Amino acid sequence: MMRGRATPGVGKMDPVQELKIRADILHAQLESRDGDALARLRVLPELRRADDALLLAKAEAFRRKHCLSVVARECGFASWERARNILSGDAEGVDFGTLLHGRNASSILSPWFASYEEALAAQRSLPDHPRHYLLAYKRHFMVTGRSFVEALGMDPDDPDWEAIGWNWARPTDPTARSRLYYKRLVAMRGVP
User: Binning pLDDT at 50, 70 and 90, where does residue 190 land?
Assistant: First the structure.
Protein backbone atom coordinates (compact mmCIF):
# COMPACT_ATOMS: atom_id res chain seq x y z
CA MET A 1 0.00 0.00 0.00
CA MET A 2 1.38 3.41 -0.99
CA ARG A 3 1.39 5.86 1.87
CA GLY A 4 3.38 8.80 0.46
CA ARG A 5 2.45 11.69 -1.76
CA ALA A 6 4.26 12.92 -4.83
CA THR A 7 6.57 15.90 -4.51
CA PRO A 8 5.01 18.93 -6.20
CA GLY A 9 6.60 20.08 -9.42
CA VAL A 10 8.60 16.99 -10.24
CA GLY A 11 5.91 14.95 -11.96
CA LYS A 12 6.26 11.27 -12.69
CA MET A 13 10.05 11.22 -12.34
CA ASP A 14 10.01 11.88 -8.62
CA PRO A 15 13.06 10.66 -6.67
CA VAL A 16 11.37 11.33 -3.33
CA GLN A 17 8.41 9.17 -4.31
CA GLU A 18 10.83 6.47 -5.52
CA LEU A 19 12.44 6.35 -2.07
CA LYS A 20 9.04 6.34 -0.36
CA ILE A 21 8.08 3.30 -2.43
CA ARG A 22 11.37 1.62 -1.49
CA ALA A 23 10.67 2.36 2.17
CA ASP A 24 7.18 0.84 1.87
CA ILE A 25 8.65 -2.29 0.29
CA LEU A 26 11.29 -2.51 3.02
CA HIS A 27 8.60 -2.10 5.68
CA ALA A 28 6.58 -4.96 4.22
CA GLN A 29 9.71 -7.12 4.05
CA LEU A 30 10.52 -6.35 7.68
CA GLU A 31 6.99 -7.29 8.70
CA SER A 32 7.56 -10.68 7.06
CA ARG A 33 10.97 -10.99 8.81
CA ASP A 34 12.91 -11.14 5.52
CA GLY A 35 16.58 -11.75 6.35
CA ASP A 36 17.97 -9.46 3.65
CA ALA A 37 15.68 -6.65 4.77
CA LEU A 38 16.72 -7.16 8.39
CA ALA A 39 20.39 -6.91 7.37
CA ARG A 40 19.68 -3.57 5.68
CA LEU A 41 18.85 -2.13 9.11
CA ARG A 42 22.59 -2.15 9.86
CA VAL A 43 22.92 1.03 7.80
CA LEU A 44 21.49 2.85 10.84
CA PRO A 45 24.24 3.89 13.28
CA GLU A 46 22.43 2.44 16.31
CA LEU A 47 22.17 -0.98 14.64
CA ARG A 48 25.51 -1.08 12.84
CA ARG A 49 26.87 -3.82 15.14
CA ALA A 50 23.58 -5.55 15.91
CA ASP A 51 23.49 -9.32 15.60
CA ASP A 52 20.70 -11.12 13.74
CA ALA A 53 18.72 -11.81 16.93
CA LEU A 54 18.67 -8.14 17.87
CA LEU A 55 17.66 -7.12 14.37
CA LEU A 56 14.80 -9.61 14.46
CA ALA A 57 13.68 -8.28 17.84
CA LYS A 58 13.86 -4.65 16.63
CA ALA A 59 12.03 -5.35 13.35
CA GLU A 60 8.65 -5.51 15.05
CA ALA A 61 9.05 -1.96 16.36
CA PHE A 62 10.10 -0.53 13.01
CA ARG A 63 7.73 1.93 11.44
CA ARG A 64 7.70 3.62 8.05
CA LYS A 65 9.76 6.54 9.38
CA HIS A 66 12.56 4.12 10.25
CA CYS A 67 12.40 2.60 6.78
CA LEU A 68 12.62 6.08 5.26
CA SER A 69 15.80 6.61 7.30
CA VAL A 70 17.22 3.32 6.02
CA VAL A 71 16.64 4.10 2.34
CA ALA A 72 18.01 7.63 2.81
CA ARG A 73 21.18 6.30 4.43
CA GLU A 74 21.56 3.71 1.67
CA CYS A 75 21.75 6.68 -0.71
CA GLY A 76 24.41 8.35 1.44
CA PHE A 77 22.25 10.94 3.17
CA ALA A 78 22.47 11.53 6.92
CA SER A 79 18.68 11.59 7.33
CA TRP A 80 15.39 11.26 5.51
CA GLU A 81 14.81 15.00 5.80
CA ARG A 82 18.16 15.74 4.14
CA ALA A 83 17.46 13.26 1.34
CA ARG A 84 13.99 14.68 0.76
CA ASN A 85 15.31 18.25 0.58
CA ILE A 86 18.13 17.51 -1.86
CA LEU A 87 16.16 15.09 -4.05
CA SER A 88 13.24 17.50 -4.37
CA GLY A 89 15.42 20.31 -5.69
CA ASP A 90 17.26 22.09 -2.87
CA ALA A 91 19.72 23.92 -5.11
CA GLU A 92 21.91 25.02 -2.21
CA GLY A 93 22.76 21.56 -0.97
CA VAL A 94 25.97 20.95 0.92
CA ASP A 95 25.75 17.16 1.12
CA PHE A 96 24.63 15.40 -2.03
CA GLY A 97 24.66 11.80 -0.85
CA THR A 98 26.50 8.98 -2.57
CA LEU A 99 24.21 8.31 -5.52
CA LEU A 100 26.81 9.49 -8.02
CA HIS A 101 29.04 6.57 -7.22
CA GLY A 102 29.00 3.17 -8.75
CA ARG A 103 31.16 0.14 -9.05
CA ASN A 104 31.61 0.65 -12.79
CA ALA A 105 32.22 4.39 -12.47
CA SER A 106 34.82 4.08 -9.71
CA SER A 107 37.39 2.75 -12.18
CA ILE A 108 37.19 5.94 -14.28
CA LEU A 109 39.70 8.51 -13.12
CA SER A 110 38.36 12.01 -12.67
CA PRO A 111 39.81 14.96 -10.77
CA TRP A 112 38.21 15.51 -7.36
CA PHE A 113 37.94 18.81 -5.50
CA ALA A 114 37.26 19.76 -1.90
CA SER A 115 35.53 22.99 -2.85
CA TYR A 116 32.87 23.83 -5.37
CA GLU A 117 34.81 26.87 -6.56
CA GLU A 118 37.85 24.74 -7.48
CA ALA A 119 35.68 22.25 -9.34
CA LEU A 120 33.86 24.99 -11.23
CA ALA A 121 37.15 26.63 -12.24
CA ALA A 122 38.48 23.27 -13.44
CA GLN A 123 35.30 22.58 -15.43
CA ARG A 124 35.41 26.01 -17.07
CA SER A 125 39.09 25.63 -17.98
CA LEU A 126 38.50 22.49 -20.04
CA PRO A 127 38.08 22.67 -23.80
CA ASP A 128 34.45 22.05 -24.76
CA HIS A 129 33.67 22.93 -21.14
CA PRO A 130 29.88 22.62 -21.22
CA ARG A 131 30.19 18.91 -22.02
CA HIS A 132 32.20 18.15 -18.89
CA TYR A 133 30.02 17.25 -15.94
CA LEU A 134 30.55 18.83 -12.52
CA LEU A 135 29.23 16.17 -10.17
CA ALA A 136 28.89 15.99 -6.39
CA TYR A 137 29.56 13.17 -3.95
CA LYS A 138 28.72 13.91 -0.33
CA ARG A 139 30.58 17.20 0.23
CA HIS A 140 33.11 16.77 -2.56
CA PHE A 141 33.08 17.54 -6.25
CA MET A 142 34.48 16.05 -9.42
CA VAL A 143 34.70 17.03 -13.05
CA THR A 144 34.25 14.14 -15.40
CA GLY A 145 33.23 13.10 -18.88
CA ARG A 146 30.66 11.05 -20.73
CA SER A 147 32.10 7.65 -19.83
CA PHE A 148 31.60 8.27 -16.10
CA VAL A 149 27.97 9.26 -16.64
CA GLU A 150 27.44 6.18 -18.81
CA ALA A 151 29.04 3.99 -16.12
CA LEU A 152 26.43 5.33 -13.69
CA GLY A 153 23.78 3.92 -16.02
CA MET A 154 22.69 7.37 -17.15
CA ASP A 155 22.44 8.93 -20.59
CA PRO A 156 25.13 11.61 -21.05
CA ASP A 157 23.00 13.14 -23.83
CA ASP A 158 19.89 13.48 -21.65
CA PRO A 159 18.56 17.04 -22.12
CA ASP A 160 18.38 17.40 -18.34
CA TRP A 161 22.20 17.67 -18.24
CA GLU A 162 22.02 20.79 -20.36
CA ALA A 163 19.09 22.03 -18.27
CA ILE A 164 21.24 21.88 -15.12
CA GLY A 165 24.18 23.48 -16.96
CA TRP A 166 26.19 20.26 -16.56
CA ASN A 167 26.48 21.31 -12.92
CA TRP A 168 25.01 18.93 -10.34
CA ALA A 169 26.02 21.02 -7.33
CA ARG A 170 24.48 24.32 -8.44
CA PRO A 171 22.02 23.44 -11.19
CA THR A 172 20.45 26.14 -13.32
CA ASP A 173 17.25 24.07 -13.13
CA PRO A 174 16.88 22.20 -9.79
CA THR A 175 13.81 20.33 -11.11
CA ALA A 176 15.96 18.87 -13.90
CA ARG A 177 18.45 17.68 -11.28
CA SER A 178 15.58 16.00 -9.42
CA ARG A 179 14.70 14.15 -12.62
CA LEU A 180 18.36 13.10 -13.00
CA TYR A 181 18.38 11.86 -9.40
CA TYR A 182 15.31 9.80 -10.24
CA LYS A 183 16.98 8.38 -13.35
CA ARG A 184 20.03 7.46 -11.28
CA LEU A 185 17.84 5.71 -8.71
CA VAL A 186 16.13 3.76 -11.49
CA ALA A 187 19.54 2.80 -12.93
CA MET A 188 20.56 1.50 -9.48
CA ARG A 189 17.58 -0.83 -9.02
CA GLY A 190 18.79 -4.31 -8.30
CA VAL A 191 22.46 -3.26 -8.11
CA PRO A 192 24.07 -4.08 -4.78
Answer: low
d(CA 87, CA 109): 26
Residues making up the chain, counted from first to last: 192
* Distance from C-alpha of 53 to C-alpha of 59, rounded to nearest angstrom: 10
* pTM of structure: 0.84
- For residue 177, the tally of other CB atoms under 10 A from its CB is 30
**What is the greatest pairwise CA distance in the chain?**
57
Instruction: Render the burial of 19-29: b for 16+ CB within 10 Å, e for the rest.
Output: bbebbbebbeb
Give the number of other Cβ atoms within 10 Å of residue 41's Cβ: 23
Under the banding of pLDDT at 50, 70 and 90, the label for residue 9 is very low
